[in-house]
Amino acid sequence: MKNAAISELFSEMADIMEILGEDGFRINSYRKVARVIADMPTDIEEMLATGKLAETPGIGKSSLAKIEEFIKTGQITAHQELLTKIPQKLLQLLKIPGMGPKGVKAVYENLKVKSIADLKAAIETGKLAELAGFGDKKAAIIAKGIEFLAKSTGRIRLDQAFNAATIVMGFLNGLPGVKKIEYAGSLRRCAETIGDVDILVAAKDGKKIIDAFVKSEFVQEVLAAGDTKGAVIIKTDSCPVHVDVRVVPEKSFGAAFNYFTGSKQHNVRLREIAVKAKLKLNEYGLFRDKKMIAGATENEIYKKLGLDYVEPMLREDRGEIEAAQKHKLPDLVCLEDIKGDLHIHTTASDGSCEIEELINAAKQKGYQYICITDHSPFVAIANGLSPARLAKQIERIRKLNDRLKGVTVWAGTEVDILADGSLDYDDKLLAQLDFVIGSIHSRMSGDRETLTKRVLKAMDNPYLNCIGHPTGRLIGEREPMDIDMQAVIRHAAETRTAMEVSSNPYRLDLKDVHCKMAVEAGVKLVINTDSHKLHQLDYMPFGVATAARGWATKADVLNTWPLAKFKTWLAGKK
Ligand code: DGT
Ligand code: CA
Ligand code: CA
Ligand code: ZN
Predict the structure, then answer these.
(1) Is any ligand 1 atom within 6 A of the Cβ of residue 154?
(2) Is residue 507's pLDDT more than 80?
(3) Please, are residues 245 and 293 in contact by the beta-carbon 8 Å criterion?
(4) Are 401 and 514 contained in the same domain?
């Protein structure tokens, strides 16, 4: 689908026009087109062919012509022309967290900044801080943003890695002689970012498979191609991805699967246990002298080492080896346990779905309940609901519920936690809701003490049920807030406040180690998607995996509970 690429071109055109100070009305219409296309669930080419694109609100004649041009030629002349009007490296400034088109325009016009290097210099000489609209604080944030950008290591998000694995596995699946295919490495462990994707194939003739793999059409660059291993960079919709493919004999598949799943630290511990038992463990099998005693499956390897089977999500050497020896591994929460999604936005604020669409989607997923949680007024850019609009929404949801079968819709909110720790609706209104998530969306760069106090104070509100995306990080884009998580978790236990695990692959917030702290403190988790679009409801497995990496069981996760039990728990706070 060319949707993403076209949407990006329109927003880039809008960015350039904004930097050049062109007509605001046109800029907005380009942004609108970008948004409409990004939200479009069907292939834009198909929409164009069937004439549906021309009827889509927000897409005028001139945009239509540009889209048509892109589909025919792979570029848009107007875009190319805009690019000639600005310095080549200027757009890179937009990648810095804290810099928008307005900021870029200001530094370009007033300080002649044409690149990130120029901007760095302007920060060092203090010129940026002197510029109207910036100041010391903002300059410091931007300096941090530049550092952050430089540090980003090329690791990719879980969703991007899964897409890449799907492409490659789909291809390998069609090759003759392939007995088994699995993904291993950090992807199988569902780590929060992925360095490269490791795929394992069981087959006799490795060379044939590697040859076919490195020649496949999605390959952009071949890094290595041997008899049993190929390493390449593949093209995907979102980014280039490094993929390693290894071919092993079927009788060693379990040993290889175990070895290449890692983590390295977990492997080291396993090998130590083997050595103590006078055995040898490597990627070919578990051996006593020269005799292989296990290797075809992971299960038999763990068993022969005297361990219970360890789920990949736990293989980080964070106590799982000891627990496996004592038969004390947790029975991890899994996707099938999830009974509802409790953080979803609708068109009332900044979501793109109607409540009715969400109900249908929830039914398809077999959920028993969902909760609608639009924003509160403080986040004006997200069209947060005024108290009156929220009251109306509550009424509407109650009416809808009367007619519903099989699934219950809760009226909720994602209310802003304001700078002083108070909530953005009054208690009287909050009291009418089924579920209240409180989140921080402003002044996120405050100091540790201020931010921690702010969260603790919010939890004291008797109507607050859950802290949403507690650290506010965006993987690869924004650092987490500096918060004393130990203190927050302790207070969550004291106030019967749950902590959210956001399944959005940019967030995964709480992260795994914080989930484990929460679980150990007896704090309940809620695994949500924070969906703004329909397809984002599918993010749930990422959150479940993150909670599982934090050793969470079904009992630790409120939205695996039956409705009545959940309600009773919630009632206990007030
Ligand atoms: P990544 O790709 O950085 O996200 O992380 P992994 O865990 O996928 O690491 P990768 O791709 O370098 O290697 C895959 C697995 O292979 C790793 O989890 C464990 C195993 N492995 C790789 N190198 C070593 C090593 O030097 N020693 C041991 N014991 N295992 C290794
Ligand atoms: Ca890897
Ligand atoms: Ca690798
Ligand atoms: Zn949200």
Answers:
(1) no
(2) yes
(3) no
(4) yes
| Per-residue pLDDT tens digits for 264-317 | 999 999 999 999 999 999 999 999 999 999 999 999 999 999 999 999 999 999
Q: In CATH, what number is assigned to the domain containing residue 147?
A: 1.10.150.110
Look at residue 136 and tell me whether its pLDDT is greater than 80: yes
Q: Across the chain, which distance is largest between two alpha carbons, in Å?
A: 78
Assess whether 203 and 146 both reside in one domain: no
| Sheet containing 498-502, strands listed edge to edge, beginning at the edge strand earlier in sequence | 340-344, 369-372, 408-416, 435-439, 466-467, 498-502, 525-528
Q: Is 186 near ligand 1, meaning CB less than 6 Å away?
A: yes
The two three-digit tokens of residue 89, written as one number: 């490296």
What is the per-residue pLDDT for 151?
A: 63
Atom in ligand 1 nearest the alpha carbon of residue 187: 8
pLDDT band at 152 (very low <50, low <70, confident <90, very high): low
Q: Please check whether residue 147 is in contact with residue 478, taking contact to mean a CB–CB distance below 8 angstroms.
A: no
Residue-level pLDDT at 2 = 82
Name the residue among 374, 375, 373, 371 with its Cα closest to residue 359.
Answer: 371
Taking CA atoms only, the protein residue closest to ligand 1 atom 30 is: 264
Check: CB of residue 375 under 8 Å from CB of residue 414: yes
Q: What pLDDT is recorded for position 313?
A: 98
Which residue among 275, 291, 325 closes a domain? 325
Counting ligands in written order, which one lies closest to the CA of residue 261?
1
For residue 70, report the phi and psi dihedrals to the nearest 5 degrees.
-65, -45
Starting from the CA of residue 245, give the closest ligand. 3
CA distance to 334, 411, 437, 491, per residue, from 458 (Å): 30, 20, 10, 10
98 and 188 within one domain = no
Residues spanned by the domain of 307: 157-325
Ligand 1 lined by 434 (C-beta under 6 Å) = no
Closest CA to ligand 1's atom 19: 262
Buried b (16+ CB within 10 A) or exposed e, 547-562: bbbbbbbeebbbbbbe
pLDDT tens-digit series, residues 187-209: 999 999 999 999 999 999 999 99
Total count of domains within the chain: 3
Nearest ligand 1 atom to the CA of 155 is 4
Task: List phi, psi (to 5°) of 294.
Answer: -160, 160
Question: Residue 41: is its pLDDT beyond 80?
Answer: no
Cα–Cα distance measured from residue 122 to residue 132, given in angstroms and rounded to the nearest whole number: 14
Residue 491 has pLDDT above 60, yes or no: yes
Show Cβ contacts of residue 507 under 8 Å, excluding neighbours closer than 6 positions: 469, 473, 474, 475, 530
**Ligand 4 mean position, distance from CA 191 (Å):** 23
Q: How far is the CA of 296 from the centre of ligand 3 (A)?
A: 21
Nearest Cα residue to atom 31 of ligand 1: 264
Which atom belonging to ligand 1 lies closest to the Cα atom of 263? 18
Unique residue bearing structure tokens 């009827």? 55
Residues 348 and 396: beta-carbon distance below 8 Å: no
